[in-house]
Sequence to fold (581 residues):
Amino acid sequence: MQQPAGVSPPPRDSGTPATARPPDGDVPWDLSNAARPTAESRATVAAPLTDRLLRSWLRCRRRAWLDRHGPAEARRWSAHRALTLQDQLHSFQSLLPTRPSHGEAACRAGSEGVVGLRLRGAGPGGIRLEAHPPLLLRIDSPSRWGAHAYQPVLVRQGRHLTREHRLVLALWGRLLAAEQGAPVPQALVLAGTGSQLQQEVFKLGSGLQQQLEEVLPRLAQELEPGRPPPPLVNDRKKCTLCCWRSLCDREASAEGHLSEVSGIGGKRRDLLVSLGVTSLEQLAAADPEALAGALEEHGEQHRDVAAELVAQALVQASGEPRRRAPGDPLPELAAAPGVLLYDIESDPDARDDFLHGLLRLERRESGWPDASGAAQAPYHPLLALQEHGEERLWQRLSGLLEHYPDWPLLHYGETEAISLLRLAERQGATEAERARLRRRLIDVHQRLKRHWLLPVNSYGLKAVATWLGFRWSQRGVDGARCLLWWRQWRQDRHRAGVPPRRAAQPLERIFRYNRDDSLATWAVARWLLEAPEPALTDLADAPTPGASPRPAPSTTPDPSTTPDPSTTPDPSSTPDPTPRP
Ligand code: SF4
Fold:
């Protein structure tokens, strides 16, 4: 048989047992005892390397180790992974007109699409390999199954194919070539769905196989029983979507990892380590001037942030907040009759801001409402259904804002301001109207960062409000989870057989989450309003933190006082245009 270029079939690994591999991560392990092999770890000696382990390892070496040896109970369910699988399914459905068939029988029968084929084989040095491509697509080329063969299909997340994608494709190609007894010269890469589906042919050249030959022995070695876990990944932004995040966060905090200092990413950490500053404590003890001088060699921008990094590390090491600038952080609230707390929920891939939530907080004679008062405030969830058009959303949103023209619009982060001003522009608001809107928008996150250093490893809303004692009424919810609920609601709301009450639940959860975000924003704003003005000496550049107090416990709302989301207004109704006070 003529062998085209690409991945040629090595001999089949007939010695591989037919039993399924043990699930990754099912072996309990105390990480502190990682260097000593246990009975459980010895049981994994013969476990094959899988495509999933390879993918994990290419993201973070520690992640692959945890997948194999980590304590299963520490692995967290990831809404992001669920979204990825959902996107993959939709891409496959857009590609194939019919449902794919299952397993090797489907390959023999020549089905157009095949799922559920577990591939096994051997790698360099006899390393046992196993892979489970999510979809195989039939092509016209001879194989041991007849006049047809298969190529693997991968759904790409993001704009470009990464090394992780390429090497996983190379592994699939290698094992599929052995399985079908015919080369796999190329794979198909998909992105998007429906009429937006993009298809790209990716050549599986010999260079990729060479890379795989180099990578697999290193991976096998690192996963050997008795090996300690690799260190935390340098750039901890990668941890955001990882199922081991809470375990690694605990470890980073316990060891004072430099990535725990807000403002330090992978590159800056490398720089500091090269200068001998390897922990949060060492950074807190550093002389800012000397550090600035040492960092200057690597670029002006690093010199400029040296004092700030040392001050932030000091605050985190001491656990006490420090005022960094005098003045009222929120002067716009001094005479305001109320505030509107504004938070948007989005589908970033679809560029769809599907919910604009507003919490209407009126000032009382006794002053601004505390946490329990805020929990009773009217909430206006304005849904932006694409089928209704943006104009309808703008009418409802601008109508609500016009009823409270003197009420500042508080939000956390720049997203809301950018989205609202763009929406206003698209809907024909005049320059003067947009300028007025701009003046009303107050970014609480920006004001906080301008006036305070806090002992938190991130100035995101979750980290800051949690430090203040705020608790979300639904545990473990994030933007990805919200997006899953949104898609579920879109799918179920008109589906026959789904009871209306059940179909409405995802939307109620989204409203509750969105409303909680507004309450959390208010917890931060209220703390800013109540924090005492410091003495001038507290603002000096002295490396000791200021004498500002810990946050008052009164900022913690009682989750039990959160109104039942089923009482939230009907999103399809026009918001209550209560006259402004
Ligand atoms: S949380 Fe971060 S350091 Fe830990 S395994 Fe995941 S990516 Fe690696």
DSSP finds 20 helices and 16 strands in the chain.
